[in-house]
Amino acid sequence: MCGKRRLTDDEISELICNLQPIDWQRMEMLSRMLPGARLTFLLNEAEQTRQETKEKLHKEHPEMNERELNLKMLEMLTGDEIPEKAWELVRKK
Asked: Full-prediction pTM beyond 0.85?
């Protein structure tokens, strides 16, 4: 099996217990939408989440300019730390 192993029943149960509950009404609403409308809805929702996150970061770090906030958001989204060199380049501008 290419180095993979089957999960035990206990491991599967633990994974399932840690999942977020499904919003069935939302899933039903999305399933009724045409693909284009569904995509537009989800893209708008993602943009709203980005804006809310950016506002929260701005409140937490009022000293940061727009570029620094964007880098901070990138760190949050990717889970990676932006190298110091990138921060230095942003601060120079």
From this structure: no
